[in-house]
Specification:
CATH topology of one domain: Glutamyl-tRNA Synthetase, domain 3
Helix content: 40-55%
Strand content: 5-15%
Oligomer: single chain
Shape: elongated
CATH superfamily of one domain: Glutamyl-tRNA Synthetase, Domain 3
Number of strands: 15
RNA sequence: GGUGGAUUCGUCUAACGGUUAGGACUCAAGAUUUUCAUUCUUGCAAUAGGGGUUCGAUUCCCCUAUCCACUACCA
């Protein structure tokens, strides 16, 4: 077998926003492609005209772009869709609705070879049969047991078949599932899997009603045409893998059949089942990479809007169902590419953990420079109507970044650097604003006010010395000062705060506290 | 119901026949600190159950249980 260039694809359906599990699938494909010096292709599988959702395709592209997952081929990332083949995009178009004319002849080829047949049963008829079977506690299946008593080219005469093909518009082409054959498959993640064809049904491959193939046909044909070497997709496809094997066989494409890898699903954090849209709202975390507003106006939150960095999101996704075999947990995409491997993918489903997700973001936040973080914090400050010096914000950010998971935590952590306290935490007042401490605080404030050098280092040293030399209780004085400056028992060192806000603000805040607060 | 897949601390996972079953997140305690947080240290906590195979099973096989997926003219 000749060595082929690695070519993998991510093939979502534009039926709604891309789920984080989908992003993970895209990521794994991307990493695999890059690792092998291959190509990552983005194909849009929009063969379901009923479920098409406007905006979903753009959402998918934007989501991948946000994550830094750039396709080498396929629907481009600049929003412009590749319609015609070119050197970079030799298999265009990459949207199945635009490939419509391609599929029918393949479906017909299968009929001609005896691997498929025309079926004329109406949807209503099949629904009726399903309901009937259900009433008897059974399941209706269109397969070798029933196909000979249904309306199709296997039971109709050639003339009748031709007549119906001409006159009717709702017929389909179905795969003729072979009888009692064991299909032996190999999955890159799950290993050897065998399935007896008697448990399978005659899947629809092509629909005359909209002249479109179903997933199964379009998928196999396109993967073949696009010379895909590995198919890395969700576990929900594992049950249809035998069909896909059989399709490759029927077309005579076994030599270039891609290898398959089925990824386990992302599960909801509590209870059972796969992670779904509702879990996010219910449990308070996003399920989608980006905010999504459905055509009906319903809004779903996104990781981006919730304040996650794309690096953190990609990192946490990569580690959800895969591990490097070492104890390293923090990976950039560049580090992920060489480290990734299909055989270290975990077989069982992974429950998403929101706490761990926050931790990842915290780690990435800490890696950022104060200047970067200040720039990210600035819009929030401006929204509060604050005019602040960027250098000052940078200093403040440096003092509080260790305590934050997100940039939007900054204000809560640092408001007192920008505004005098308007309220005082009662518990702190109770504890530190005692009558006997007030004279001490008055003396200390007066001491600080006469300092010429308001640098953090100098204030800290002078303050310490003053307190110690005068035999004052360190904790009481410091916490009293903190109460006046912050209004609560929180925040960085008192000297840091004094140095940052400066003498005027220091004086004003202390005066205010003495005026407003009653001793406990 | 049928078919397929899965099953290690609460969660993500490591250990591909021999370990006191390791790490991370969470939680708890202690230390440091003028507070909160950080940081550091310590701790709590797992091989679903039952049979085999083996000198020895988390690891291999079988059964049971549980969970998940699929079972559409959806992907």
């Amino acid at each position: 077998m000749q060595q082929r260039q690695t070519r993998v694809r991510f093939a979502p359906s534009p039926t709604g926003p891309l789920h984080m599990g989908g992003v993970r699938t895209a990521l794994y494909n991307y990493l695999f492609a890059k690792q092998n010096g291959g190509k990552f292709i983005l194909r849009i599988e929009d063969t379901d005209s009923q479920r098409f959702v406007p905006g979903a395709e753009a959402y998918i592209i934007e989501s991948l772009r946000w994550c830094g997952i750039y396709p080498d081929e396929g629907v481009t990332l600049d929003g412009q869709v590749v319609e015609t083949a070119s050197e970079q995009h030799p298999h265009a178009p990459y949207r199945q609705s635009q490939r419509k004319p391609i599929y029918r002849k393949y479906a017909e080829e299968l009929v001609a070879k005896g691997y498929a047949y025309y079926a004329f049963d109406s949807g209503e008829e099949l629904d009726r049969l399903r309901k009937e079977a259900e009433a008897n506690g059974q399941t209706f299946t269109y397969n070798q047991a029933t196909r000979n008593s249904l309306t199709n080219s296997l039971t109709l005469s050639a003339e009748e078949t031709q007549r119906r093909l001409q006159e009717e518009t709702h017929w389909t082409i179905r795969f003729k599932m072979p009888e009692n054959r064991v299909v032996a498959m190999d999955d890159l993640i799950r290993g050897h899997v065998e399935v007896n064809t008697d448990t399978l049904d005659d899947k629809v491959l092509w629909k005359a009603a909209d002249q479109l193939p179903t997933y199964h046909l379009a998928n196999i044909v396109d993967d073949h045409l696009m010379e895909i070497t590995e198919v890395i997709r969700g576990e929900e496809w594992l049950p249809s893998l035998p069909l896909h094997y059989l399709l490759y066989e029927a077309f005579g494409w076994q030599d270039t059949q891609p290898r398959f890898a089925h990824l386990s699903l992302l599960l909801k954090p509590d209870g059972k089942g796969k992670l779904s849209k509702r879990d996010g709202d219910r449990l308070g975390f996003p399920v989608f990479p980006l905010r999504w507003e459905a055509p009906n106006g319903e809004v779903s939150r996104g990781y981006r809007e919730d304040g996650y960095y794309p690096e953190a999101f990609v990192n946490l996704l990569a580690l959800l169902g895969w591990n490097p075999g070492t104890e390293q947990e923090l990976f950039s995409v560049e580090e992920l590419i060489p480290a990734f491997s299909l055989d270290r993918i975990v077989r069982s489903g992974a429950k998403f953990n929101a706490d761990k997700a926050k931790w990842f973001n915290q780690e990435y936040l800490r890696k950022r420079s104060n200047a970067q973080l200040a720039a990210e914090f600035m819009p929030i400050l401006e929204e509060k109507g604050l005019q602040v010096n960027p250098a000052y914000v940078e200093t403040v950010v440096g003092l509080i970044k260790e305590r934050a998971h997100f940039v939007h935590d900054f204000w809560e952590l640092s408001s007192f650097f920008f505004e005098a306290p308007t309220t005082y935490d009662p518990q702190t007042v109770q504890k530190f604003w005692k009558a006997e401490n007030l004279p001490l605080l008055q003396q200390t404030v007066a001491f600080v006010q006469q300092l010429a050098d308001f640098s953090k280092e100098h204030v800290e040293e002078a303050l310490h010395q003053f307190i110690v030399e005068n035999g004052m209780p360190m904790g009481k004085v410091m916490n009293g000062l903190r109460l006046m400056l912050v209004g609560a028992s929180k925040g960085p060192g008192v000297a840091d705060i004094i140095a940052a806000i400066g003498k005027d603000a220091f004086t004003a805040r202390c005066e205010q506290a003495f005026a407003v607060l009653n001793p406990a």
